[in-house]
Each structure stands twice: as structure tokens, then as C-alpha cells.
Amino acid sequence: MLSTPTKTIFPLLLFASVGLTACGGSDSSGPSWVKGEFTDHAELADQCASDGSGSALTEKLWMRSYSDDTYLWYSEIFDRDPGPYEVIEYFELLKTTALTPSGAPKDQFHFSMSTEEWDQLSQSGASYGYGMNITIAQGQGITRTVTITFSEPDSPAADADIARGARLISIDGVNIANANDQGSIDILNAGLFPSKAGKQTEFVVRDLGAVADRTVTLTATTVVATPVQNTQVLDTDSGRVGYLQFNSFNSPAERGLFDAFTELSDAQVDDLVIDLRYNGGGLVWLSSQLAYMIAGPEATEDKTYERMSFNDKYPTTNPLTGKMLSPTPFWPTTIGFAPEMLVKGLDLPTLSLERVFILTTAGTCSASEALINGLRGIDVEVILIGGTTCGKPYGYNPTPNCDTTYFTIQFEGMNHKGFGAYSDGFAPSPNPMLPTDVQGCRAGDDLGHALGDVNEGMFSAALAYRQTGTCPLAVSGKVASPAAAAVPFVDEGFMLEDTRPQSQARGNRILTRP
Amino acid sequence: MLKRWLCTATLWVCLAGCGIGNVPADPASPGNGRSVSAQGQPALLLTPDATAYAELSEAIARLMEMNQVMLAEDAFTETSVLTLERKAHTDPQGRPLMGRSLEKPVTVELQRLAGECVIVHLATGQRIALPSVRCQAR
């Protein structure tokens, strides 16, 4: 670490240097904005208004230069004078305004947060809560409801027998459907999204199929999620079908997947249904391992799982490290993400399947979509059952400057065939027309049955499609709407609350307007 | 500010071992397996109470140069090694912000060394003593 005097002097030296050279139009008062001219962002970094080492202008010029250098669509940023804008307000403008083929904003993943919040670790899979994952239906003309999508094993919710399909009626005396003032909404949010262990909350619950409500008091604790659940093998007339529910690409999941695929391999399953409806992604290397376990060694040998593509200023090197780009392979052995659970270097179990069924919703995102794309890249047949995935083939290196960490899209992930253009998501379709249409059936998230139940809508559709090759009539017309698509438990810490109407309709925080 | 920048840059190296976008020859190599400088005995908590966890969290935060560390209420009671990841922030739709992460999780180990309990960052061998924590070698 640098000593205090050095810390003080170095930024001043940098600042002086920038003052002489920045932007081609600067004067002794410091850097300034000149349209189309960009100073090296390294020369503008860490010059902050808060401590006097710089100013709001230097912070904005840094993010402008950083975006021009590394943003995937840098040429689509309109270069405007930062002067009239606040720092974060200016960052919000440093992105493309282009639309996807469906008309949605191409960049829906432009974020910033305090570095103090970003620099927090947690034991893998741990979060504060009750262990119940929920989906919220709310918005104009919709009666607000909160329904359990699944509960974590050995959690306060599971101990209280709160299971999928149960509906929360009230929280600490506030009726969920009728709450319409800020005080009541605050009580609901505080109850649903506790920020620390020990908080006690009273819930009135209507269990699935019950005719009466019951009252339970749950105490928030540090819940460690179980990312792989419900692994099972079904014997059918046409062979054995494996199923597993997979919720997050986190460290403990490597052991969970290892065990699940060992079981499925031992059972010699003929087909596999992976339930990714609530899996928003995580570790890319883990998704490459999962793809390997599905496809096996022959299909993946010398193939690329995913290749990162940066902007055209960096065709062969990573702008974030300066190193040569190399593709992510289908990884064949354990990595040991959590060595206390699984050591590195073991051969992964494989099924060597030529096709796989994947259950999806709008909550199926990022590394989950990379799995779909990676398998399609090596001609493993992917059959999607459910809703359109979220559409995030992108990634970034969160970058701090002046106590704020910025998330600006810097790369796109492409499969072995060079395909990565799925910003509108992968859509299940009985008759695929577009490159992002994937053979399969549309079906809604059936909260009336347990996950892994053969009568659950999406799983049953997968089994029926496998049997007949056609989508069952009961689900072919269903669309998994964004409002119905369940999403994981809300971030209980820093609140990145999106106030856009389309997000309010499907967000996972209680909003004032019913 | 500069310290923050350097600390964070250092952390990225510690976490990722490769930096985002750079695929290592062996992704299993960083942060996994014992450092030669870590010479203590793996240990478990004798008194897994709030005081112990507060000291552990604070020590791990210092070790990793992070602001806060969340531990489960039974951490270091069944295994001496613990894996930590960046807190899972989500976007307004509840999806992970880092849905496509190349960060390598970090692993720390509770050890008994020279009569005291220490927490060790396995990738670097750096350690911090835990004067109020009671533990015993496994």
C-alpha cells in the first residue's frame, strides 16, 4: 500500500498532468470537454470532488473516456457536454439508445452503486431472510399478490411448512392486496426483505389448496441456499428421464451438480430436463462445466464454450487486462470453487446427451443463457419449455472511481459458431423462425404444483413434448408473462430500484400503487 | 482514492486470479489449495457465538480489503475452510447483477497456529490473528 504522503501527492501530479494535456482543449484550470476528443481514462481516474483531488467534471470526463474506450457500443454514445449533468445522471447517458429487433432498449444493464456497498463479501450462497423465494404480481389493474415459488431446505420458511404456491395475505398486520399508503408499503417491504438476522415478522399465509389462513412468525436468519435441488429419475415407456432444479451458478453448486450428474449418470438416463426457471446466472466457468456434463467429452473436444467479444478497439486483447483473448472451453474437471465441498481436478460425470430439455422464464439469465447458447454452438439439441429468457449475452468488469462502482457493458459472449445476438432472449417456439427461436413449447410457471412434480405445467409439457414431439394443447397457448415469471429473492441490501413503468409491473419490490 | 483503486485492483487479482475476460490455463489454480506460507493446523470454532463471528467477519474483511463480510451462523463449525463470494446484488428485476461472472471465489481457513486462532487467505497465505476466538485443531 502507498503511504499517506504518496497517496496525496500522486493524484495531484496526475491532475497537473491532465491539466496540461487533457482533451486537447484544456487550460490551467484543468481538463475540459471537447467534442470527439478523449483523454486516456487512466489519466482522469481517482480525481474526485469529494476529497478535493478533482471535481465532478473530472469524474464525468473519466467515465466518458472509460466508456469510449471499453463500452461495447461506444460508437453509439452521443458525446454531450457533461457540464449540465450530475455525475450519476451523466453516467446514465453514456450508453446506446439503440433498440433490439423487438423494440426493447439494447442496453438494459447499465448500473452504478456505491463502492462501499459493492465491496461486500458473503459466505457463498448466504443471504438474510427466511428462505422463501417469492414472486410478486402488481401493477395497474392487477391485484397485488405475493406467492411462494420455493423454499430453501432447512430454512425458517421450510420449518414453518411454507411451500410453493402458498400466498402471503398480510405482513405484520398490513394486508398485501389493499395496502395503499407509504407507511403500509414500508412495513410490507421491511417484512419481505429483512436487512439483518433476528428480525421477527408475522405472516398470514394461505397454503396451496387450503380454505383457511394461518398465522406464522418467522425470524430472519442467514440462510445458505441449496442451488441444486429435486434431482430425480423417472422411468417412462420411452426411457429414463432425469430432472434437476438448478437455481444459481454459485460455488456450492459445483458440488451439487457433481452429485446430481453422478446420480443421473449411474441411472443411465436417456434424457434430461434441467429446470433453470429461477436461475439468473453466476459463474461462467461453472456453466461451461455443466455444458460438459450434459454433452460429454466427444461432443465438446476442441470446441469453444464461449468466446468474449469486446468492442472493435480490442479485437484480440482484453482491454481490462491487456492480455490476449482466449476462448472458454467446455471444462471437463472439477475446479474446486468451494474446496471444502469439492476438491479440484476430478473428472466430471457426463451424460453425453444429444439433446436436453431446459425449463425457462424471464428469470433465466446470463450464465443460464450461455449454457443454452454454448450447447447450441456444438449442435446439442436444446428444447426450451416455458417463457422467453431475459436476453443478457453481455458482461462487464465493475469498475470503481471516486467511491462509486460502475457497470457498463463491455463484452458479448459468443458460442462456437460465433453466435451471441440474443439480446431479446431465447424464445421457445414450436415453429422456430428467428435465430433466437428455440424448438419447444411456451408454458407458464405453474405455481399450483411443486417443482419436479410431473404434473407441474412446464415439466409436464417437457415430458409430453418428449413423448409426442408436439406441444400439449393445454400449454401451447400459454405465455409466461413477465408478471408471472418468478424472480429470485430481492437484493436485501442496496436497492437498485427501477422506477420505469415496465419494471414496476414486474419488479420484485412492493410498490405503492396497487 | 488511489488506495481504493489499488486495493480494488489487487482484489480483482486475488479474486479472479486472471482478471475478467482472461481465461487462465487452469481456472482451478488461484485461491485453491494451501499456500506454502500457511503452516497452522486447520481448526474449528469452540465457541461459535456472536462475538466470535463478529471478530471473524471483521478479520476477513480486513484480509480481503472489503467493507463487510456475511457469515452463516454455523460457519467454521463443520469445516475449517470457507468460500466467500461477492454479495449477490440484483437488478430491479431481481436478477443477479453479475450473472456472467469470471470472479474466482475466495477461500479462507481457520487455523490454530502457535497457540492462537488465525484466519488465513489460502491464495496468498496472509493471515490475521483472532485474539477473542476460541478454536481447536481438527
From TrEMBL, chain B:
It comes from the Bacteria. This is Uncharacterized protein. Keywords: Signal. Residues 1-25 form the signal peptide. The lineage of its organism: Bacteria, Pseudomonadati, Pseudomonadota, Gammaproteobacteria, Alteromonadales.
